[in-house]
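Q: Please design a sequence for this.
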Protein backbone atom coordinates (compact mmCIF):
# COMPACT_ATOMS: atom_id res chain seq x y z
CA UNK A 1 0.00 0.00 0.00
CA UNK A 2 1.30 3.44 -0.92
CA UNK A 3 1.57 6.42 1.41
CA UNK A 4 -1.35 7.99 -0.47
CA UNK A 5 -3.54 4.94 0.13
CA UNK A 6 -2.60 4.91 3.82
CA UNK A 7 -3.50 8.59 4.04
CA UNK A 8 -6.89 7.89 2.47
CA UNK A 9 -7.60 5.12 4.99
CA UNK A 10 -6.53 7.41 7.83
CA UNK A 11 -9.13 9.92 6.65
CA UNK A 12 -11.81 7.23 6.29
CA UNK A 13 -11.29 5.57 9.66
CA UNK A 14 -11.72 7.58 12.87
CA UNK A 15 -7.96 7.70 13.29
CA UNK A 16 -7.97 9.55 16.61
CA UNK A 17 -9.81 6.60 18.17
CA UNK A 18 -8.57 3.80 15.91
CA UNK A 19 -5.06 4.51 14.57
CA UNK A 20 -4.99 1.46 12.30
CA UNK A 21 -2.03 2.80 10.29
CA UNK A 22 0.10 2.99 13.47
CA UNK A 23 0.55 -0.58 14.71
CA UNK A 24 3.41 0.42 16.98
CA UNK A 25 1.30 2.91 18.94
CA UNK A 26 0.10 2.13 22.48
CA UNK A 27 -3.49 2.95 21.48
CA UNK A 28 -3.40 0.44 18.60
CA UNK A 29 -2.29 -2.30 20.97
CA UNK A 30 -4.80 -1.24 23.61
CA UNK A 31 -7.67 -1.60 21.13
CA UNK A 32 -6.36 -4.94 19.85
CA UNK A 33 -6.03 -6.24 23.42
CA UNK A 34 -9.59 -5.21 24.26
CA UNK A 35 -10.90 -6.82 21.09
CA UNK A 36 -9.12 -10.09 21.87
CA UNK A 37 -10.54 -10.05 25.40
CA UNK A 38 -14.09 -9.41 24.22
CA UNK A 39 -13.86 -12.09 21.54
CA UNK A 40 -12.46 -14.60 24.00
CA UNK A 41 -15.07 -13.94 26.67
CA UNK A 42 -18.14 -13.16 24.57
CA UNK A 43 -17.37 -14.11 20.97
CA UNK A 44 -18.13 -10.55 19.86
CA UNK A 45 -16.45 -7.15 19.87
CA UNK A 46 -17.93 -3.82 18.76
CA UNK A 47 -15.76 -0.83 17.93
CA UNK A 48 -18.20 2.12 17.96
CA UNK A 49 -17.82 4.98 15.53
CA UNK A 50 -15.09 3.26 13.54
CA UNK A 51 -15.64 5.43 10.48
CA UNK A 52 -14.65 9.10 10.69
CA UNK A 53 -17.83 11.17 11.25
CA UNK A 54 -16.91 13.55 8.42
CA UNK A 55 -16.56 10.61 6.03
CA UNK A 56 -19.47 8.47 7.15
CA UNK A 57 -22.29 10.20 5.24
CA UNK A 58 -20.51 9.66 1.93
CA UNK A 59 -19.55 6.09 2.92
CA UNK A 60 -23.16 5.21 3.77
CA UNK A 61 -24.54 6.94 0.68
CA UNK A 62 -22.23 4.94 -1.57
CA UNK A 63 -23.46 1.71 0.01
CA UNK A 64 -27.08 2.82 -0.29
CA UNK A 65 -26.56 3.57 -3.99
CA UNK A 66 -25.89 -0.12 -4.75
CA UNK A 67 -28.47 -1.55 -2.32
CA UNK A 68 -31.18 -1.80 -5.02
CA UNK A 69 -28.96 -4.36 -6.79
CA UNK A 70 -29.30 -6.89 -3.95
CA UNK A 71 -30.47 -10.40 -4.78
CA UNK A 72 -33.61 -10.48 -2.64
CA UNK A 73 -35.19 -13.88 -3.03
CA UNK A 74 -37.09 -14.89 0.10
CA UNK A 75 -36.77 -18.58 0.96
CA UNK A 76 -37.35 -21.09 3.73
CA UNK A 77 -34.21 -22.23 5.54
CA UNK A 78 -33.03 -23.87 8.73
CA UNK A 79 -30.26 -22.79 11.09
CA UNK A 80 -27.74 -25.06 9.38
CA UNK A 81 -28.50 -24.05 5.77
CA UNK A 82 -28.90 -27.72 4.86
CA UNK A 83 -31.76 -29.11 2.71
CA UNK A 84 -35.14 -28.90 4.44
CA UNK A 85 -35.90 -32.48 3.43
CA UNK A 86 -32.71 -33.86 5.00
CA UNK A 87 -33.16 -37.18 6.81
CA UNK A 88 -33.18 -35.96 10.41
CA UNK A 89 -34.84 -37.15 13.65
CA UNK A 90 -38.26 -35.66 14.35
CA UNK A 91 -36.98 -33.41 17.15
CA UNK A 92 -33.82 -32.28 15.35
CA UNK A 93 -33.37 -28.45 15.30
CA UNK A 94 -32.64 -28.73 11.57
CA UNK A 95 -36.34 -29.38 11.11
CA UNK A 96 -37.20 -25.90 12.41
CA UNK A 97 -38.00 -23.87 9.29
CA UNK A 98 -37.60 -20.08 9.13
CA UNK A 99 -38.06 -17.44 6.45
CA UNK A 100 -34.80 -15.85 5.29
CA UNK A 101 -35.34 -12.35 3.94
CA UNK A 102 -31.89 -10.82 3.93
CA UNK A 103 -30.42 -9.91 0.55
CA UNK A 104 -26.86 -9.48 -0.74
CA UNK A 105 -25.20 -7.13 -3.20
CA UNK A 106 -22.35 -9.15 -4.68
CA UNK A 107 -18.77 -7.97 -4.80
CA UNK A 108 -18.75 -7.53 -8.58
CA UNK A 109 -21.75 -5.17 -8.31
CA UNK A 110 -19.90 -2.76 -6.02
CA UNK A 111 -17.63 -0.36 -7.97
CA UNK A 112 -13.97 -0.90 -7.09
CA UNK A 113 -13.44 2.80 -6.28
CA UNK A 114 -16.08 2.93 -3.53
CA UNK A 115 -14.80 3.53 -0.01
CA UNK A 116 -16.12 0.20 1.22
CA UNK A 117 -13.84 -1.57 -1.26
CA UNK A 118 -10.92 0.65 -0.30
CA UNK A 119 -11.36 -0.34 3.33
CA UNK A 120 -11.70 -4.03 2.52
CA UNK A 121 -8.49 -4.07 0.47
CA UNK A 122 -6.55 -1.86 2.89
CA UNK A 123 -3.41 -3.54 4.24
CA UNK A 124 -3.53 -1.59 7.54
CA UNK A 125 -7.17 -2.62 8.03
CA UNK A 126 -6.40 -6.27 7.25
CA UNK A 127 -3.43 -6.22 9.63
CA UNK A 128 -5.61 -4.67 12.35
CA UNK A 129 -8.41 -7.21 11.85
CA UNK A 130 -5.94 -10.11 11.94
CA UNK A 131 -4.41 -8.82 15.17
CA UNK A 132 -7.81 -8.45 16.81
CA UNK A 133 -8.61 -12.10 16.04
CA UNK A 134 -5.15 -13.17 17.16
CA UNK A 135 -4.13 -14.28 13.68
CA UNK A 136 -0.80 -13.65 11.94
CA UNK A 137 -2.57 -12.62 8.72
CA UNK A 138 -5.94 -12.61 6.95
CA UNK A 139 -6.60 -12.96 3.23
CA UNK A 140 -9.29 -11.57 0.98
CA UNK A 141 -11.56 -14.17 -0.53
CA UNK A 142 -10.61 -15.20 -4.05
CA UNK A 143 -14.34 -15.38 -4.70
CA UNK A 144 -15.49 -12.88 -7.38
CA UNK A 145 -18.94 -12.54 -5.78
CA UNK A 146 -18.25 -12.80 -2.05
CA UNK A 147 -15.61 -11.04 0.02
CA UNK A 148 -16.79 -7.44 0.14
CA UNK A 149 -20.60 -7.38 0.02
CA UNK A 150 -23.56 -5.37 1.22
CA UNK A 151 -26.24 -7.07 3.29
CA UNK A 152 -29.71 -5.56 2.93
CA UNK A 153 -32.70 -6.40 5.14
CA UNK A 154 -35.87 -4.67 4.05
CA UNK A 155 -38.76 -3.74 6.39
CA UNK A 156 -40.79 -6.74 7.48
CA UNK A 157 -37.93 -9.16 6.87
CA UNK A 158 -35.19 -10.72 9.00
CA UNK A 159 -32.01 -12.76 8.80
CA UNK A 160 -33.03 -15.80 10.86
CA UNK A 161 -30.95 -17.92 13.21
CA UNK A 162 -27.88 -19.43 11.55
CA UNK A 163 -24.22 -20.32 11.93
CA UNK A 164 -21.41 -18.96 9.77
CA UNK A 165 -19.22 -21.20 7.63
CA UNK A 166 -16.12 -19.19 8.43
CA UNK A 167 -14.84 -19.00 11.99
CA UNK A 168 -14.80 -15.19 12.13
CA UNK A 169 -16.74 -12.34 10.56
CA UNK A 170 -16.27 -8.58 10.14
CA UNK A 171 -19.14 -6.19 9.41
CA UNK A 172 -19.95 -2.50 9.57
CA UNK A 173 -23.46 -1.09 9.91
CA UNK A 174 -24.04 1.63 7.31
CA UNK A 175 -27.78 2.23 7.72
CA UNK A 176 -29.95 1.44 10.72
CA UNK A 177 -33.68 0.75 10.49
CA UNK A 178 -36.26 2.88 12.23
CA UNK A 179 -36.98 0.00 14.60
CA UNK A 180 -36.04 -3.64 15.03
CA UNK A 181 -33.09 -5.16 13.23
CA UNK A 182 -31.27 -6.04 16.44
CA UNK A 183 -28.31 -8.39 16.33
CA UNK A 184 -28.94 -11.39 18.59
CA UNK A 185 -26.46 -14.16 19.29
CA UNK A 186 -25.79 -17.17 21.49
CA UNK A 187 -22.05 -17.15 22.23
CA UNK A 188 -20.45 -20.57 22.14
CA UNK A 189 -23.74 -22.45 21.89
CA UNK A 190 -21.82 -25.22 20.15
CA UNK A 191 -18.19 -26.24 19.84
CA UNK A 192 -16.04 -27.89 17.20
CA UNK A 193 -16.63 -31.17 19.03
CA UNK A 194 -20.29 -30.88 20.06
CA UNK A 195 -23.39 -29.59 18.24
CA UNK A 196 -25.39 -29.17 21.49
CA UNK A 197 -28.66 -29.69 19.66
CA UNK A 198 -30.71 -29.35 22.86
CA UNK A 199 -29.64 -25.75 23.45
CA UNK A 200 -30.06 -24.86 19.77
CA UNK A 201 -33.52 -26.41 19.77
CA UNK A 202 -34.43 -24.44 22.90
CA UNK A 203 -33.44 -21.10 21.35
CA UNK A 204 -35.29 -21.85 18.12
CA UNK A 205 -38.41 -22.72 20.12
CA UNK A 206 -38.21 -19.41 22.00
CA UNK A 207 -37.47 -21.09 25.33
CA UNK A 208 -33.74 -20.33 25.53
CA UNK A 209 -33.79 -16.58 26.15
CA UNK A 210 -31.14 -16.96 28.86
CA UNK A 211 -28.72 -18.06 26.14
CA UNK A 212 -29.38 -15.04 23.90
CA UNK A 213 -27.37 -11.81 23.94
CA UNK A 214 -28.85 -8.74 22.23
CA UNK A 215 -26.90 -5.95 20.62
CA UNK A 216 -28.12 -2.72 19.04
CA UNK A 217 -25.50 -1.53 16.56
CA UNK A 218 -25.21 2.07 15.38
CA UNK A 219 -24.18 3.33 11.94
CA UNK A 220 -20.40 3.38 11.69
CA UNK A 221 -19.90 0.62 14.27
CA UNK A 222 -17.44 -2.12 13.31
CA UNK A 223 -18.34 -5.58 14.57
CA UNK A 224 -15.90 -8.47 14.97
CA UNK A 225 -17.65 -11.76 15.57
CA UNK A 226 -16.93 -15.47 16.00
CA UNK A 227 -19.97 -16.84 14.20
CA UNK A 228 -18.98 -20.43 13.56
CA UNK A 229 -19.95 -21.60 17.04
CA UNK A 230 -22.34 -18.80 18.02
CA UNK A 231 -25.79 -19.06 16.47
CA UNK A 232 -27.03 -15.59 15.56
CA UNK A 233 -29.67 -13.61 13.72
CA UNK A 234 -30.90 -10.11 12.89
CA UNK A 235 -34.45 -9.62 14.17
CA UNK A 236 -37.26 -8.36 11.97
CA UNK A 237 -36.67 -4.88 10.56
CA UNK A 238 -39.57 -2.51 11.24
CA UNK A 239 -40.55 0.88 9.88
CA UNK A 240 -39.84 2.14 6.37
CA UNK A 241 -36.03 2.05 6.25
CA UNK A 242 -33.94 -1.00 5.39
CA UNK A 243 -30.94 -2.17 7.40
CA UNK A 244 -27.63 -2.04 5.48
CA UNK A 245 -24.43 -3.68 6.62
CA UNK A 246 -21.10 -3.96 4.82
CA UNK A 247 -19.62 -7.45 5.08
CA UNK A 248 -15.85 -7.91 4.94
CA UNK A 249 -15.07 -11.60 4.47
CA UNK A 250 -11.51 -12.73 5.14
CA UNK A 251 -10.00 -16.18 5.65
CA UNK A 252 -6.88 -17.54 7.28
CA UNK A 253 -5.61 -19.01 4.02
CA UNK A 254 -5.49 -17.61 0.48
CA UNK A 255 -7.45 -18.80 -2.53
CA UNK A 256 -10.79 -19.55 -0.84
CA UNK A 257 -13.87 -19.59 -3.09
CA UNK A 258 -17.44 -20.29 -1.99
CA UNK A 259 -19.30 -23.47 -2.88
CA UNK A 260 -21.59 -23.46 -5.90
CA UNK A 261 -24.78 -24.14 -3.90
CA UNK A 262 -24.13 -21.61 -1.14
CA UNK A 263 -23.19 -19.00 -3.76
CA UNK A 264 -26.44 -19.65 -5.60
CA UNK A 265 -28.41 -19.22 -2.38
CA UNK A 266 -26.82 -15.88 -1.53
CA UNK A 267 -26.40 -14.26 -4.94
CA UNK A 268 -28.81 -16.08 -7.24
CA UNK A 269 -26.03 -17.01 -9.65
CA UNK A 270 -22.59 -18.56 -9.81
CA UNK A 271 -19.48 -18.30 -11.96
CA UNK A 272 -17.00 -20.88 -13.31
CA UNK A 273 -14.77 -20.31 -10.26
CA UNK A 274 -17.45 -21.83 -8.01
CA UNK A 275 -17.55 -25.21 -9.73
CA UNK A 276 -14.44 -26.33 -7.85
CA UNK A 277 -16.30 -26.26 -4.53
CA UNK A 278 -13.70 -24.12 -2.78
CA UNK A 279 -15.78 -23.59 0.34
CA UNK A 280 -14.27 -26.72 1.84
CA UNK A 281 -11.15 -24.69 2.46
CA UNK A 282 -12.82 -22.67 5.19
CA UNK A 283 -14.14 -25.64 7.13
CA UNK A 284 -12.39 -26.08 10.46
CA UNK A 285 -14.49 -28.91 11.92
CA UNK A 286 -16.89 -31.70 11.05
CA UNK A 287 -20.11 -30.00 12.17
CA UNK A 288 -23.43 -30.48 10.41
CA UNK A 289 -23.40 -27.42 8.18
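A: Design:
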Amino acid sequence: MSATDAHTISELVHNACYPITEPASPLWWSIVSRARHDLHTDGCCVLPGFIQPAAFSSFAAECASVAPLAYDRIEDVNAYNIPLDADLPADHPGRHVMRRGNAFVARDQIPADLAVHQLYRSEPFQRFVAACFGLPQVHELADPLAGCCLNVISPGLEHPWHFDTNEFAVSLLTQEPECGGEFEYCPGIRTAQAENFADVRSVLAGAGSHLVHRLTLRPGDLQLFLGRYSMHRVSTVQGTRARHSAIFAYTERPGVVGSLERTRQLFGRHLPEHHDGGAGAVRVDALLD
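Q: Thanks. Anything notable?
A: The chain is about 25% helix and 20% strand. The longest strand covers residues 169-175.
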